[in-house]
Amino acid sequence: MLEEKWSRLKSGTDIRGVATEGVPGENVNLTLDICETITQSFVLWLSDKTKKSPDALTVSVGRDSRISGPAIAQVVEKALSGCGVTVLSCGLASTPSMFMTTVDLDCDGAVQITASHHPFNRNGLKFFTREGGLESEDITSLLEISQKLSELFANGDSTGLPQGKQGEIKPTDYMTDYSARLREEIKKGVNADDYDHPLKGFKIAVDAGNGAGGFYADKVLAPLGADTSGSRYLDPDGMFPNHVPNPENKAAMDSISEAVIESGSDLGVIFDTDVDRGGAVDSKGNEINRNRLVAMAAAIALEGNDGGTIVTDSITSDGLKEFIESYLGGKHHRFKRGYKNVINEAIRLNNEGINCPLAIETSGHAAMRENYFLDDGAYLCTKIIIKAAQLRKEGKSLEDFISSLKEAKEELEVRYKINEHDFRAYGESVIAKLEEYAKSQEGWTLADDSREGVRVSLDKEHGDGWFLLRLSVHDPIMPLNIESNIEGGKDIILAQVEKFIASCDKLSR
C-alpha cells in the first residue's frame, strides 16, 4: 500500500507535485530527493521492461520553461548517470519531442520535466518508452519501487540500486532535428512551386505563453517563409507573467486572437507550456478550439480515411457528431475524458481492424495514427497550417473548411464538490441514481453512446440541448457540462438538473 507521501504525487499517468515555494498554503512535496528516487525507480522499471542492464540503457531528458526545471533536470540526469545509464541532455524541449527521441535517437526511454499548464510552483515527471507514455498502473509501480527504495535508503542500504560505472551525460540538441521534421511535413503537404518556402506570403502569429513552444515560430515557420512578426510571448519564462499557457484558458485564447487581429495575420496558433496541446484562431480572430478544433482535426484526419472513426472525449457537442457523421461521412466514437483514455481507445479500435486515424480531446490533446498516436500540439498545428495553405490555393479559407459545423448557442460547466472521503464510490452512486432518474423525466432522452457518466438530451420544451454529469478523472469533483441551442437554454437545463442535485447531500457547488 502506498503511503500518502507517494500516492499524492500520482496524477493519472504523470508524477506531479509542488516543486517550489511561492503560493500560500502549498508546501513543497516534489523535492529534489524525491525526484532522484523516482528517477532511480524508473531505471529499475525500464531495465526490467527492456531486459537490458542499466548500463546498456539510453534515456533522454528534457524540460519545459518552469522555474524549478533546471534544478530537477540536473538531479534527474545525475540519478540516471549514477545508475550507469547513458543520458541525452536535451534541455528546453517539448514533451512530444521527448517521445520522438525514442524513435529518432533510439532511446530506450525518455523523461520530460513538466506540469503542463499548472502554475509556476508546480512541476512533474512524465515518462516514455518506445511504446509511448506510461500507463496509470506503470506510475503506481514506479511509486511502489520508490517507496521501497526510500525505506532502504533510510536504513543506509543502497544495494537495491545498480552498481557499476557512471553513465555519460551527453548534451543533445534534438529540438533542431524535431523542428526540421515538422518543416519537412509542411513542405511535402503544401508542395508549393517554391518548395522550400511553402509559407511565403503567409502571416502566422504564434503565442507560446512563455512556455517551451517558442521554437515553432523561429525554427519551423520562419525558415519556410512565413511572417511571424505578430507572435508574442515566445521567450521561455517559468513564471508565466503574461497568461496561463493553456489553450483552454480564456485569457490565453483572447491573447492569440488579439495578436492575429493587431498584426493582420492569416492565422494564429497557441500552445500549452510543454506543447502537447495546441489551439488556433482564424484570420478574424475566431477561436478554432474545443469542438471547432475537433471538427478541424477530424476533417483533416478523414481525408484518405473514408468512413473512418474519430475518438473524442465525452463532452463533445451534438453538432460535432452530426458534422463528423453526416457531413464528413465518418463515425463519431465518444469515450471518456482524459487524453490517455481517448488515445488508448483509438489504439484498441485499430487493433480490432477499425479504421481510426484520430484520437482527440476537447482540451486540445490530439493524437494522429500517422504520428504514433502521440498527442502533439505542434504536429496538430502543422497539419492545420498545411490545410490553410492548400485551401488558399483553391481560394478558400479555414473558416470555409468547418462552416457546416453547427454550434450551440450557449454552454456552461458547473463543478460540484464531493464532500465524502470515498469520493469515487459516492460519485458512482450519484451517476447510477441519475441514470434511473432520467428515465422518468419528461423531455429527457438518455444517450445511447455514453461511455462516461450520464449524458441526456433535452427536447425544445426543456432547454433544447444536452447535459453530461460525470466523475472527474482524478479529483473529488463531479463536472456538469451543458449545451443549449437556444438563448437562456443553459439556465433552463441547469434548473432541471439541480432539482436532482438537491437530493445528493454530499454534493456542493
Unreliable spans are none
The largest pleated sheet is described as: 8 strands, mixed
The CATH topology of the largest domain:
Alpha-D-Glucose-1,6-Bisphosphate, Chain A, domain 3
Mean pLDDT: 96
Domain unit count: 3
Q: What is the terminal separation in angstroms? A: 32 Å
CATH architecture of the largest domain: 3-Layer(aba) Sandwich
Name of the level-1 CATH class of the largest domain: Alpha Beta
Number of helices: 15
In CATH terms, the superfamily of the largest domain is Alpha-D-Glucose-1,6-Bisphosphate, subunit A, domain 3
Shape: globular
Proportion in β-strands: 15-25%
Structural class: alpha+beta
Q: Provide the helix percentage.
A: 25-40%
Give the tally of β-strands.
23
Radius of gyration: 23 Å
Describe this structure in words.
By secondary structure, this protein is an alpha+beta fold. The protein has three domains: 4-172, Alpha-D-Glucose-1,6-Bisphosphate, Chain A, domain 3 (3-Layer(aba) Sandwich); 176-401, 3-Layer(aba) Sandwich (Alpha-D-Glucose-1,6-Bisphosphate, Chain A, domain 3); 410-508, Alpha-D-phosphohexomutase, C-terminal domain (TATA-Binding Protein, 2-Layer Sandwich). Helices cover 37% and strands 20% of the residues. The chain is built from 15 helices and 23 strands. The chain has helices spanning 4-7, 32-50, 69-82, 95-104, 136-154, 174-190, 215-221, 250-263, 291-301, 318-327, 339-351, 377-393, 398-401, 423-439, 489-501, and strands at 10-11, 14-18, 58-63, 86-92, 109-113, 122-129, 132-133, 169-171, 204-207, 267-271, 278-281, 287-288, 309-312, 331-334, 358-360, 366-368, 374-375, 410-418, 444-446, 454-458, 465-469, 477-484, 507-508. The strands form four sheets. Strands 1, 2, 3, 4, 5, 6, 7 and 8 form an eight-stranded mixed β-sheet that branches. A six-stranded antiparallel β-sheet has the order 19-20-21-22-18-23, covered by helices on one side. Strand 6 and strand 7 (132-133) form a beta hairpin. Helix 2 packs across helix 5 (136-154), helix 6 (174-190) packs across helix 7 and helix 6 (174-190) packs parallel to helix 12. The protein is globular and about 70 Å long. The mean pLDDT is 96.
